[in-house]
Amino acid sequence: MNRKQTILGIAIILAATCVIYYPSLHGEFILDDDDYITENEFIKASDGLSSFWFSTEPVDYYPISNSSLWFQWRLWGDTPTGYHVVNLGLHIVSVLLLWRVLIRLSVPWAYFAALLFAVHPVNVETAAWISQHKGLLALVFMLLSILCFLRTIPPEPSDRLVFFRQGTGLWYALAIFFFVLASFSKGSAVILPALLVLLTWWKRKISYWDLAATVPFFVIGAIATKIHTWFQLQSPEIALLPESNLQRLLCAGTTVWFYLYKALWPLKLQFVYSRWEIDESQLMWWIPLIACVATTFMLWWYRNRWARVWWVAWCWFGIALVPVMSFADIGYMRFSLVADHYQHIAIISVVALVAGYWHGAYQLLPRIAMPAACVIVLALSFLSWKQASLYETAEALYSHTLAANPGCWLAHNNLGVALAEHGELEEAIEHHQQAIRIEPENPRGHNNLGVTLRQMDRVEEALVHYKIALEYRPDYANAHVNMGVALRKLGRTEEAVEHYKLAVKLLPNSAAAHFNLANALRELEQLQLAAEHYRLAISLDETNAYAHCSLGDILAETGQLQEAKQHLKRSIELKPDYAIALNSLSWLYATAENSSSDETANAIKLAEKAVALSEGKIPTILDTLATAYYAANMTTEALATQERAIASARESGAESIVLEFEEKYERWLKAANRIEETHP
């Protein structure tokens, strides 16, 4: 391809992917996106990077991809669009890199293969699901590593190590560097060394020196595998994989054909497929495995005749699937043994093989092959656009999943959460209950049902489900937090504190746990201890406006006025429409000794905004505005506003503050009368 054709090719890839994925760019957070981003305390913490690199506290050891998300949080916060745009950008970059790799490997119609990869519906799950950022990033680094490594392979077998071949040392070092980045972006990248051996064999006869060149890659891959496996085993939610090794082997055989079928016929794709029940006594589970063995043997036998390209494609496909063949425990396999995003690397061999044979068809029947290729690209693009549209809302995605897989408790559970967030509580309850019927011993389902019941003020019922969740999983920190919230609502604050303390012990880096504990301690008037936990919550999540406000209030109560003002100002910066913070800062300005005219003017401005936001229905905020008016010598406005505060307090039944407000009103009125008598 010349320069103009290359630019046109890039433009087509950009246009196609942007159109296909446009619906998902405005998509919501789904499934474990909260775990990876919005509820990930390491992402929010200012020292989160050190935790990703130098601690065992995170769920996975993916320091590269987690660091990327850490930086993105500083840009996008809890707005999902930015993360979706980055994922789309990585998908486009991987498509362009794949194009270069296939050209380097002399694959016919390399551009067509890259375009098929760009628009294939199976890849939508990876590109449109924010949590799969790790997989996209890993593939980019893998392709960069392959490109660099291919530059080190001489046309003929060499009798010298790569370091001693002129002009290859830097490329070799870069290949290793990018492999390290890939391996610590996502664990599935550890299969790269085997792929490098395969590609070397594909280009020419392989030598011992070629194998020696891959040894550092295998060593790095082994170390990364050991680390990733250790982290997986620490997860409290281990997948319930097939029990026997034979069942796992049968599952692996079926997995290969399942993914190949979906790659060639990408219809009826599901976010969560039905979970297989492997039965070694049934012939149907043996046939796929036997077919895999037979195919492997046949292609190997004819590898030096007609099957060389088929052997390479088959090996790439199989090697790429090894990490997800149920031999290893993967958390997602609690829900399904297969997933579209698992074949993100494997499908490369399928599109490359199809493109190569389409080139042969084009040479024989150019008038048919080219239009047919365009039709295939358009058809795949349409299917991908439809698939990407499902990721626009969590409700759409989980509803689509349940239509095809009604027994999926995960979809029922998450649809319930999504419905509850949109205020459809009754329907949310139904889905949570259905999730529990399908999977009665699922602590997450009971916890989420409890949350929705509490939103409906059915607090006693919520407590029952929190207790069940904790029976099944005593170390479930979120259930302890929610139990504490429910107990506080029932006035059982001391019991709530015990659950919050357990949550903090289980999740010492949880800003939410520290914040809730601080709220309860403040309610018990343990202000010093409450302030400590507010500070911890802020150190873990500096964007928590509520923690800043609460800490500011405590500091004001204990006379630390300057620091109190700093935290209240920060709270307002983070949440400009937070009436309570506006009110608290206004009160400090209005009641300060020797306050300046600027401070009293600011107090009035803040209090007026707080009154407007609360629609004048909160008596304490009206009282603050009245106090600010009085501090500015606007006595008439102060008296009128204080009358409103008294009336609002009576209407809301807050009799305890009515007397206080009335005494203040009488004091101001007498002072005003004395002034009138002095200056008739």
TrEMBL record:
Q: Where does the source fall among the domains of life?
A: Bacteria
| One Pfam family cited in the UniProt record for this chain | TPR_2
Q: Does the keyword Repeat apply?
A: yes
Q: Which Gene3D superfamilies match?
A: Tetratricopeptide repeat domain
Q: SUPFAM superfamilies from the entry?
A: TPR-like (SSF48452)
Cite the SMART domains for this sequence. TPR
GO BP annotation list: endoplasmic reticulum unfolded protein response; protein O-linked glycosylation via mannose
For this protein, the parts annotated as crossing the membrane are 7-25, 82-102, 136-153, 174-202, 208-225, 284-302, 309-330, 342-361, 368-385
Repeat positions for TPR: 409-442, 443-476, 477-510, 511-544, 545-578
Q: Which UniProt keywords apply?
A: Membrane, Repeat, TPR repeat, Transmembrane, Transmembrane helix
This protein is called what?
Answer: TPR repeat-containing protein YrrB
Organism whose genome encodes this protein: Bythopirellula goksoeyrii
Query: Where is the organism placed in the taxonomic lineage, from the top?
Result: Bacteria, Pseudomonadati, Planctomycetota, Planctomycetia, Pirellulales
